[in-house]
């Protein structure tokens, strides 16, 4: 399902007059939005060019994810094949190519998350990329890191680490690379800043938390926990104080998803709060189910 072709052009962008490579986007569309999809996995090919250009435009504050989100969503869903075992049949070159594409994705999200509005769609793609349970990361779970992150952050200050003992769990070095690259580009700092905003919506908070929740077991608690502990306690208190009249607010549909992400973080950083978060999630679902507001009932049933 992957293809590679000779191309004298590279994917690098420079100069103030850069435009998004729509020709490459249309070519990517023809490869992705079809039953028999094929994804380019080299930097100088369509997906690489689109990601590099997007990152450059994001740096300039000119990137609009919504203009071509379907292609990037579908592209990364396909490129990691979350529900297929086909990934296990691909060779080393393809897997390394996917690693490079995921790095480009991380570069893009790290730039875009520094700006407003919060890129909820892109963060959901990042969550997919950070999930150690998807087929791609499972296939490459024994890989070690390709960079020495202690040289970047200082010994013991990496944002993500492989477990000390392989008897505990697999290294997942490539996943650790992705998370640390995100931190290196200021992604963690940007998310911390967004989470501390006073007027941030609940759905945006959930989107910001999810990428860390899925990979929580590989986060370095000494570095990341001080950043996330305040939001964990803040969100638990917020949900505890939700009143019946608030349940009609459509924005509260994000609460169950948010609590799921918070639970994953608690399992890593605050294990004594896991049961409380579970109980709180069940309580809010029950309250939504009993609510006279139709939307609250339907959202509760959907979550159940």
Automatic annotation (TrEMBL):
The record's section on InterPro entries has: ARM_UBP34_24_USP9X_Y
In Gene Ontology terms, what is one molecular function of this protein? peptidase activity
- Quote the Pfam families the UniProt record gives: ARM_UBP24_USP9X-Y
Annotated ranges, domain UBP34/UBP24/USP9X/USP9Y-like ARM repeat region? 276-304
The answer, when asked if Hydrolase is one of the entry's keywords, is: yes
Q: Name one GO biological process term.
A: proteolysis
Q: Which UniProt keywords apply?
A: Hydrolase, Protease, Ubl conjugation pathway
Protein name, UniProt field: UBP24 hydrolase
Question: Which species is listed as the source?
Answer: Anhinga anhinga
